[in-house]
Amino acid sequence: MPVRFSRKTIVAALLAGSLPFPVVAREAAPAGIVNDGDIVVTARRREETQISAPVAVSAVGQAELTRRGITQLDNLVSAVPQLIISDAGASTQGGVVLIRGIGVGESNPFADQAVSFNVDGIQLSRANIRRLSEIDMAQVEVLKGPQALFFGKNSPAGIIVIRTADPGKSFEAGVNASYEFNGKEIRTDAFVSGPLSDNFGVRIAGFYSHMDGYFDNAATPSATYGLSRTKLPQNQDYGGRITLKFDPGDRFDARLKLSYGNVDSSGPESSMQAVDCPLGFNQLSPTIANSCAPDKRSVIADPGPLIAAVSTGDFAAVPYVAQEQILGGLEMNYALNDTLKLTSVTGYYQNRTSFVSSATVADTTNPGFVFVSAQRFKANEFSQELRLASSFDGPLNFLIGGYYQDADLRFQNFVVRNAAAPVVAVPKRPVYQDGKAYSAFGQLMWKITPEIELSGGGRYSYEKKGYTLYDAAGNRLPTASPGNNWNNFSPEATLAYRPSQNLTIYGAYKTGFLSGGFAVASGDLTRDRSYDQQLVRGFEAGVKGRMGHFWGSITAYRYVNTGLQVTSNIVDPVIGVDQRIVNAGKAINQGIEAELRYRNGAVELHGAVAYNHARYKQFVTTCYAGQSVALGCSLSPNATGVFQNQDLSGGRMVRAPDWVVQGGGAYTFDLAGGDTVAASADVNFSSGYFAAPSNKPASWQTGYATVDGGITYTNAQYGFTIGVLGRNLTNQYYYSRAIDSTFTGSGTGTTTVTPSDTIASVSRGRQILVRAGIKFR
Fold first, then answer.
1. Mean of per-residue pLDDT scores for the chain
2. Is residue 8 classed as helix, strand or coil in its secondary structure?
3. Residue closest to 491 by CA, chosen among 452, 535, 426
4. What percent of the chain has pLDDT over 90?
5. CB-side exposure of 167: number of CA atoms within 13 Å?
């Protein structure tokens, strides 16, 4: 059985380390900038410069993380083209994550998401881990396209690789603090690091964050249904990490990392707003003026005391989220001889999440439309990877290995509607998934000439998942699909030409695989909730190079996705939104992306442009609420002749903007005594996209641009910094996930319909931060 740590135990350990709580890491990680902005990456499980790695990778190094104040992975969207990360409303998965328009699983707690996270070698396919990985980040690498070979379980859309800071050879410590005015958010980060002996080092880092909220809750005050919070969302987060590193300088070295994170917030729907109202007003909040556009206002009623009394162990009168996460990783390296190295990576992940959400944007004057979900989620995942790598002097080298994962997941959803006279819409039914994954992988690299390298390999994967359902009394219920298994072989091959250390030209054939599973977010769980695997195959080619102070890359790609997993929302007036996952017959994403950086002394400039043509080729899915026959709901009639499905073949893939453009720069002014002042500005533009998987026109997010800027003073003598940072200075409110509003819309698939409202998780608006930090050596 895995060792479990209580919150009090871990917090006490952090406090014992004298932490005032974390900054963006200052200690150099194994990676770093080596020359004019070229960054060392580990995209192929070996350290190589970003230029020499024949992989489409966008890397954000420690210097840029610090300059732009990126302490949360959600802030990466303005630094990495074609990356989307955001909250996802009432989702135990923790968020939406997409690369090049490919991503799935945000609404299904049992799904493996198509974009994985790799945190210090530990592979996880759950967006919740992004909160835990943000502690003491040293570098982030975003690998785009299918990544079958090098990182744990197969990832058909890409991988976000987070490398946190390690202890160095000398003592250092630091504290950073920031305050954001609009959300009244304070964040403090701290670390202490250094050697305990010649071959043993330790690093302890932690953070604390508290926010009052940046949305005004415009719901009508009520003695029964709130408002308990006039500002949303309200959050209190804290966590920490301890790293122990043993490196005697001979054949063996080891690194142990233990991380803990805690989140207490105002509820997963705190950022949900009505973004389109075809009747001209919010159907659930008709007396609230101008509440049908993304802005700084939300309308959220409390569940109230009657719903809380339905089941005191499950519901509450006020929405909330409580989450604890633990991540442990042990990496051990042993050199069998001068040319063979054996690596073992052992990981353990634990998640405990509970929340109560008001899942509609209903005013307190309409308590009958208050719709409350109480969810509980538990995850225990163990993984083990072994790999053997060669470093022969000859033209041939290899990498072989194996991977195992055991994941035990538990979820329950309990739904009640009508705060004035509660009615159970979805009874409490705990559901379990026991999953095991096995894979073997290998790669052979052949230096045909000193300049030409051919590499090829593949991964064989076998996964099985069992599905078990119980009623509230603990009695097992029959299900249509008690389990399933999948197997796959994903090959890839890459030809790279490196005429010099400053130029790489490559072409690659790549494939990927994502296992199927069971959709359990809502609905009748005794029915067939299964969906099938997703496969991807295609080509990409790129050129990377450096000339003088310029660094640049350009990549072209084309991938065919078969069985693309897409969330399908079916709105029911009783149970709310039944979220399923369906497989699109075929989808193609193809495009071209380019990055350019310039660094010369005090001047740094960067720019990126990406075009992504992502379209469904074969895809029949459910209609959106209020979609008439004339609007395309003309397939699959039921027994009464009402159509239920639409054909999106040829349509845009959800959350896949055609264009993303980014650019910016920084200039450092030298002052007397070695002090400096650095000024920077960055722009991010995204063209429009559908935010609902049904391609509902009302879910269309129009193109938008955000601007960030800042100025920072650094004192060389005392090692402190102080500055001001602005994010989203254009005050854009945008969204990446939208659904039909429950209790609105009717007549789907007929000639007479009532259109539904559309609600979405809306982004944070303008942020103005003051920040200060000090570092000790």
1. 89
2. helix
3. 535
4. 69
5. 27
β-bridge partners, 160: 117, 142
Which backbone phi and psi does 523 adopt, to 5 degrees? 95, -175
Spatial contact of 492 and 145, defined as CB atoms under 8 Å apart: no
Closest CA to 662 of 142, 201, 197: 142
CA distances for 592 relative to 595, 601, 612, 659, angstroms: 11, 30, 7, 10
pLDDT at residue 26 greater than cutoff 60: no
Q: What is the rounded CA–CA span in Å between residue 117 and residue 94?
A: 13
Q: What residues contact residue 573 under an 8 Å CB cut-off, 6+ apart?
A: 742, 743, 746
Total-model pTM: 0.91
Position 585 scores a pLDDT of: 84
Distances in Å between the Cα of 483 and the Cα atoms of 383, 434, 514, 706 are: 21, 9, 16, 46
Pairwise CA distance, residues 230 & 217, whole Å: 5
**Whether the predicted pLDDT of 662 surpasses 90:** yes
Taking only the tens place, the pLDDT of each residue in 615-639 is 999 998 888 888 888 899 999 888 8
506, 495 Cβ separation under 8 angstroms: yes
DSSP state for residue 169 in the 8-state scheme = S
- Residue 291's Cα: distance from chain center in Å? 29
Cα 240 from Cα 386, distance rounded (Å): 27
pLDDT at residue 126, as a whole number: 86
DSSP 534-549: EEEEEEEEEEEEEETT
* Cβ contact 542:553 at 8 Å: yes
Report how far residue 566's alpha carbon sits from residue 113's, in angstroms, rounded to the nearest whole number: 11
The tokens for 78 are 């303005």
Tokens of 498: 């490196």
Three-state secondary structure call for residue 775: strand
Does the bond joining 657 to the residue before it have cis omega, within 30 degrees of 0? Answer: no
Residue type, position 628, single letter: S
Q: Are strands 720-727 and 704-715 parallel, antiparallel or unpaired?
A: antiparallel
Q: CA–CA separation, 104 vs 86, rounded Å?
A: 13
- Cα–Cα–Cα angle for 141, 256, 59, nearest 5°? 10
Reply yes or no on whether the pLDDT at 238 is more than 80.
yes
Strand-by-strand arrangement of the 48-49 sheet: 33-35, 38-41, 48-49
Rounded to an integer, what distance in angstroms lies between the CA atom of residue 748 and that of residue 563?
26
Edge-to-edge strand ranges of the sheet holding 122-124? 57-60, 137-144, 158-164, 115-119, 122-124
